[in-house]
Design goal:
By secondary structure, the protein is mainly α. The chain folds into three domains: about 110 residues, Four Helix Bundle (Hemerythrin (Met), subunit A) (Up-down Bundle); about 80 residues, no CATH class; about 80 residues, Winged helix-like DNA-binding domain superfamily/Winged helix DNA-binding domain (Arc Repressor Mutant, subunit A), CATH 1.10.10.10. The chain is about 65% helix and about 0% strand. It contains 13 helices and no strands. Helix 8 packs across helix 9.
């Protein structure tokens, strides 16, 4: 939307007459029941001043006012499509939520190249952080850590999330491809640290797992069918089966299951000791 078109929209909105409650109700019924486009146009035109007022509240995010108004108009149309006049609620009250939600979504999508605020708690943090920080700071001289703690308690988010969001809102996005200095050949990307293991560590772990699996597979061959069944159920699953449950399934007492398991572990350790002594400790 051009600047001239934006100014024209504002003038039109401010010049539009207010709707009395009965007139608004009748227009909403015409639109709801008959799809009367003229009725829809009169309702939305009369409430565009609400869109403009709401857009002014989001100007501090640095986005064009005209774009905010456009997004608010989308929310206004959505409200008109969903409004139920028989509920005896003023349209402005109902539309305010849709207008604000539409603008908030636009701000979250465009304020930063890094998407944030995907959960309801994160959205509340994003849109209320500045206000709460200023209010807390006006009461007394408090540390940044104390401010973050009070905000986290007020909004139900972690202190870490508050600190990260505060940092993001305090500075613009910076490209990782920018040089670290005017005369430097290295980019910021070159100094990022990764928590992931190094490639040689990944290969080493993979080889180690395969070797251990081979040793274990060979050692398991010394067990009988019943011993193998118990060891698999008790030791080779994420959640080992209980002695009582296993005994009921095999038709023996849990004490008998424990005895068979103990004997099987001794046989396994002996077999593993012959192949690799270090791995025998896994079955201690």
């Amino acid at each position: 939307m051009s600047d001239s078109a934006g100014r024209m929209l504002v003038r039109t909105a401010m010049a539009a007459p207010y709707l009395e409650r009965q007139e608004e109700h009748e227009l909403a019924l015409r639109w709801r029941r008959n799809g009367d486009q003229e009725a829809l146009n009169r309702i939305t035109t009369a409430h565009m001043r609400l869109v403009i007022a709401m857009a002014a509240r989001f100007r501090h995010f640095g986005l064009p006012m005209s774009d905010l108004v456009q997004e608010g108009h989308v929310g206004l149309l959505e409200a008109a499509a969903r409004f139920e006049p028989d509920r005896e609620v003023r349209f402005s009250t109902y539309a305010t939520w849709w207008i604000r939600a539409s603008m908030q979504d636009y701000v979250l999508r465009n304020w930063s190249i890094v998407r944030g605020g995907t959960s309801s708690a994160q959205k509340a943090l994003f849109f209320n952080l500045r206000r709460l920080r200023n209010r807390i700071g006006q009461r007394s001289e408090v540390s940044t850590a104390s401010v973050h703690l009070q905000i986290s308690e007020a909004l139900g988010v972690s202190v870490r999330d508050v600190a990260i969001m505060d940092s993001r809102l305090s500075a613009p996005d910076t490209s990782l491809n920018l040089p670290v200095a005017d005369d430097a050949s290295a980019d910021r990307m070159d100094f990022l640290q990764s928590d992931e293991p190094l490639p040689d560590e990944v290969v080493e772990d993979t080889i180690d797992v395969e070797r251990r699996s081979s040793w274990l597979g060979g050692a398991l061959e010394v067990l009988s069918d019943r011993e193998l069944s118990i060891i698999r159920a008790r030791r080779l699953t994420d959640e080992g089966e209980t002695l009582e449950s296993l005994g009921g399934r095999l038709g023996i007492s849990k004490e008998r299951v424990r005895q068979i398991e103990s004997r099987a572990l001794e046989k396994l350790k002996a077999a593993l000791m012959r192949r690799n002594p270090a791995m025998a400790a896994d079955f201690a």
